[in-house]
Specification:
The chain is mainly beta and 96 residues long. It has one helix spanning 2-15, and strands spanning 23-24, 29-34, 40-47, 53-58, 63-67, 73-76, 80-85, 89-95. It has a 5-stranded antiparallel sheet, covered by helices on one side. A 3-stranded antiparallel sheet has the order 1-4-7, with no helix packed on it. The protein is globular and about 35 Å long. The N and C termini lie far apart (35 Å).
């Protein structure tokens, strides 16, 4: 149930006080892990919906990101990271 998944993700992000970052479409959630200097090192992008989407996540940094599961890389440009998200998936992208 996509609505239940959305609610669960939002509830746990709030409970764990995870920073959220601007993302689109509305069904996509994103959070980051920052190093001690406050630089974004890892981005987590969640698509709890039943649809394939291109997630757009505002990270405010231009960098190369590697998907820790697939090993594939992509770049954020003008602070925006765009990644294809399959239904009901989470991606962990590490800044290179």
């Amino acid at each position: 149930d996509p609505a239940a998944a959305d609610a669960c993700v939002a509830r746990n992000m709030e409970k764990l006080k995870l920073p959220s970052v601007a993302s689109a479409p509305a069904s996509v959630f994103a959070t980051v892990h920052e190093d001690q200097s406050g630089h974004v090192r890892v981005a987590f992008v969640l698509n709890p919906a039943d649809d394939d989407v291109v997630a757009r996540v505002m990270l405010a940094v231009d960098a190369t990101w590697t998907d820790v599961m697939s090993g594939r890389s992509t770049r954020s440009e003008r602070g925006l990271l765009e990644v294809r998200m399959r239904p009901r998936t989470v991606r962990m992208l590490e800044r290179v």
